[in-house]
Amino acid sequence: MKVVIFSTCIVDLFFPNVGKAMVEVLERFGCDTEMPVKQICCGQPTFNSGYVKETQPVFRNQIDALLSIDADYIVGPAGSCVNMLREFQVQLKDDPEYAEKAKQVAAKTWEFSQFLYRVLGVLDAGAELDATATYHRSCHMTRLLGERTSPFVLLDHVKDLKMVPLPHIENCCGFGGLFSVKEPEISKQMVDEKVDDVISTGASVLISADPACLMNIAGRFNRRGEKIKIMHIAEVLNHNVDPSRVKYVPEAERDELYAGGYNQGFTQSDVKKEVGA
Amino acid sequence: MTIKTSNEPFLTRLKESEQDTFMQKAVAKAQDAQWDKRTAARNELGHWEQWRDLGEQIRQHVIRYLPDYLEEFADNIEKHGGHVFFAKTDKEASDFIKHLAEEKQVHHVVKSKSMVTTEIDLDKELLKIPGLSLLETDLAEFILQEDDWDEPTHIVFPTLHKNRDQIRTIFQKLGYTGDNDPQHLARFARTYLRASFLKADMGITGCNFGVADSGLINLVTNEGNADLVMAIPKTQVVVMGMERLVPSLKEAEVLDNMLARSAVGQKLTSYCSFSTRQVSGESDGPEDFYVVIVDNGRSNALGTPFEPVLQCIRCGACLNVCPVYRHIGGHGYGSIYPGPIGAVLSPVLRGYEQFGDLPFASSLCGACTETCPVRIPLHELLIKHRQVMMNKLHTDKSFNNVIMKGIGVATSTPAMFRMALTADHVAMAPLTKHAPITVENEYPEGIIRKAPSMAKGWTDVRDLPEMPKHSENFRSWFKQHHKEQEAKQDD
Ligand code: SF4
């Protein structure tokens, strides 16, 4: 199965380890990975700032790049950016040339953890991590992409990993893209509460499926001189892997899981208690 | 008070909010408690998502046929002997009511909670009439009035920013001598207010929903004060936003149900009444009945991408889930409509000059859109506002605008991005401070503690990872890795 890696600009610029871990896990499960070099960014920095028109070329470039390699799937390590790729079809629905291409992109794009669980049917990735950890749920992955399950299921199966629920898991960490730069006064208070909540769990590792949220929370931890270890979920699932531990979801449940990956956001309201959280 | 509650710049208000730790704790506590109550009340109803579909359809339908429903509603009010006045502006609305009070030689006005009367600054206008007394009878509004007309900070819980000790101090000015027990405080207010109801000759209420096919006014409260305001005085004035209609009682039932669960986490509020002018042969209810329907900027939204904002039923749920409201409170927004709904609605009503900061005061986390019972896409409307403002800025050469356009070009031009990736960031080197690193696995290359320009907002608050060298970034690794894979396959 051929998978195009949607690297995301944040991983390209800052976090090679996240990209490496993702590629290694995917290859372990039989994916041939390819990375189109012309890809850049999902366009959120400008789009969410109101530069909607200026972002159209960003969308188009990204679509051309991702479709330049004929692959079965497109997989990325950030829930928020993946959601934006799926939303291209909404933004370009009146574009005679790109409407159809945007639909093709949306139909085969998945966030890393949901791809593993819902498409490949992986239940236990065979990883081990002897630690107490908590999970930060990104707003866009949860509410817009509608993915509330996959990371929790996968983490629950990591050997020796003890997951502690994060209080106020429903609250934003204060990243919000350029919000963090434009409104530092508000963003600071939000991330401070998040840091306090993480500390209150006693966890020594903070995990998430969105490197941008992690960059924000980690940045505040470090500024405050507080200790924590940051891990992207791909790094956790790539840690001390023993292939004999790998387990799959029963065949009979796969179709439903797959369909659940197209839960396009806002279907459940106020769901506070997550699976495994 | 008009829509605007403060003349201070946005940043000043933010600073003040940040220092108001009491307010922040109170809001956080209320949000957390409401989260559980609201979720339980919605779950108990079951099929919440389908209810939301229905709520959205009802409200969209009404907005689409608003002129027709307004006409039907007004006809039915008049059929019962009531009067309808359409006010284009806040001034027209408050002038009309003021003249009415003068004409009827009103001495004592009692009011029940109504955001739209705050919006048109009605209290202050009426109090200009010599000899006229006016009393807010909703407990929270009463507290604000007695605290020298303090600003409300929430559309459902206007005194969220006050604690029981502050309230006790306010009541002491009225002769209260008891302790800070909320029950004792409420009992004192109740006795104080009772006397006013009996002597009032004009009652003013808001309106949760106007029922078009019957001309009934639907009000939901938990204190029952609105019912007294309607039942006792000879003259009643109902003030309502022009969008607050439902076709019939059937739709009112659906929306009341959703409103109570969303606003306060109850099945239904303690009082839910439908009323109109006094029916002949009955002893209570107003003899003179006026309905003032207020536009005051609402029609700006009609036919625009902002039209969905008129679906709002003012439940306040979006404030109760908003992480920004959680920290900056109502005062931070500087509008009587704070939170996500306020950030969308205030610029629609009053423009960007006054409220252009608000659409940016959001991380676009979508909690509001997720909770809204009538499915207003609040966070998308915030982006729309940003878009409108940025289009206006089109020719603007301000620093940020130029940078943003630059980012737009850089993120759509592969060669430029690759150049950025291949440059080893020597230029960044002097920015790196040898500050201690306490966070593991995030800063293999070190941290940046003080960055210039756009990134300053970031490093004002938190550390930034230093970028890996070109040879060590993800793309270089992938290229190398691919070569190795291929070599393996060739073997
Ligand atoms: S926008 Fe929606 S959630 Fe917010 S007050 Fe209005 S109806 Fe309630």
Mean pLDDT of chain B: 91
Helices and strands of chain A, in order, run as EHHEHHEHHEHEEHHEHHEHEHEH
Proportion of beta-strand residues of chain A: 15-25%
Which structural class is indicated by helix and strand composition of chain B?
Answer: alpha/beta
Give me the oligomer status: heterodimer
Q: How many separate structural domains of chain A?
A: 2
Count of DSSP helices of chain B?
Answer: 22
Q: Please tell me how large the radius of gyration of chain B is.
A: 27 Å
Taking the alpha carbons of the first and last residues of chain B, their distance comes to 80 Å
Protein model, in words:
The complex is a heterodimer of chains A (277) and B (491). With 277 residues, chain A is an alpha/beta fold. In chain A, 47% of the residues lie in helices and 15% in strands. In chain A, α7 crosses α9. The radius of gyration of chain A is 18 Å and the shape is globular. Chain B has 491 residues and is of the alpha/beta class. Helices cover 49% and strands 11% of the residues of chain B. In chain B, strands 1-10-7-4-2-3 form a six-stranded parallel beta sheet, with helices on both faces. A four-stranded mixed beta sheet of chain B has the order 8-5-6-9, with helices on both faces. Chain B has a two-stranded antiparallel ribbon with strand order 12-13. In chain B, β5 and β6 form a beta hairpin. Chain B is elongated and about 100 Å long. Chains A and B meet through α1, α2, α3, α4 and α8 of A and α1, α2, α3, α14 and α17 of B. The complex binds iron/sulfur cluster. The site of iron/sulfur cluster has 15 residues of chain B, from α13. Chain B: It comes from Lacticaseibacillus hegangensis.
